[in-house]
Amino acid sequence: MKTVKVAEAKARLSAMLAEVEAGGEFVIARGGTPVARLVPLAARGERELGFVPFHVPESLDDPLPESELAAWEGDGE
Which InterPro entries match (predicted)? Predict the structure, then answer.
């Protein structure tokens, strides 16, 4: 783990972030006193699409009943 002063961290932030993405770590110090640590976040795992279990019914593409069609067309009750 490397220690850098605040001024160096400000000047080299992009390069430091690239190094952190590759697994590196930094301690940022002010006046010789460590005040922060720059470390990679834990990698996120794969996530399933959707928030709840859902199954598309086989009847999804079946034609609508006449009463439903009429309602959509404004001819229903």
Answer: Antitoxin_Phd/YefM (IPR006442), phD-YefM_TA_antitoxins (IPR051416), YefM-like_sf (IPR036165)
